[in-house]
Every structure is written in C-alpha cells, then in structure tokens.
Specification:
The chain is an all-alpha fold. The chain has one domain. It has 2 helices and no strands. The relative contact order is 0.21.
Length: 74
Amino acid sequence: MSDDNKAGNLLDAAKAKIDEGADRLRAAGHEVASKVGNNPAENAADKAKAVEDRARAEAHNAEAHHEANKADKD
C-alpha cells in the first residue's frame, strides 16, 4: 500500500488513543463523583457511567491496535 494509506492508518490509531484517554479520564471523573455524592441513586448512575466509559476506552484501545497493525503491514 501507499505511504498515504500508512499515514492514514497511523492517524486513525492516534485518534483512537486520544479517544481512549478521554474515555479513561471521564471514567475517573464519574468514579470520583460516585464516591462523594450523597444521593445513592446518583452515585449508582455515576458508577454505571464509569463502567461504560471504561468499556468505550477498551474499544478505542482495540481500534488503535488494529489501525497500527494495518499500518505495520503496509
């Protein structure tokens, strides 16, 4: 494949890693919020949002590895 395709794959991998970091940061914020609130329902909702954000981070991590591997094959 061409250098343009390789660069595109690397760019996609970098974007996915940035998204992963943002998701992990959001998850940390929800985790903190779930521990400092006084409302048990809101705390549980924040805990669920943290779990969802961590799952999204793992998906972005897998996407980044996939794109990086495609670039390596080129």
